[in-house]
Amino acid sequence: MVTIQVIPYGRAHSNPPITGEPEWATPRTRELMVRACFGCHSNEVEYPAYASVAP
Question: What is the pLDDT of residue 9?
């Protein structure tokens, strides 16, 4: 288990550039989307610390 953590496979987590943004119906819609969904469903993903831990 410890040995597999040393091998740097799949640790390069990067986001593609932001190319645009959809037109939101209201500013509140965008706020809800950012808070609830952008963590995984955007080009602004912030990976948690455990994302680099090998299974």
Answer: 66
Single out the residue of 45, 42, 52 nearest to residue 5, CA to CA: 52
Q: In the numeric block, which tokens belong to residue 32?
A: 């809800």
Q: Kindly report the length of the chain.
A: 55
- Whole-angstrom Cα distance, residue 13 to residue 11? 6
Residue at token pair 């939101």: 24
Mean pLDDT over each residue of the chain, to the nearest integer: 82
Largest CA distance in the chain: 50
Segments of 1-55 assigned E as strands: none
Q: Virtual CA dihedral for 44, 37, 39, 24, nearest 10 degrees?
A: 20
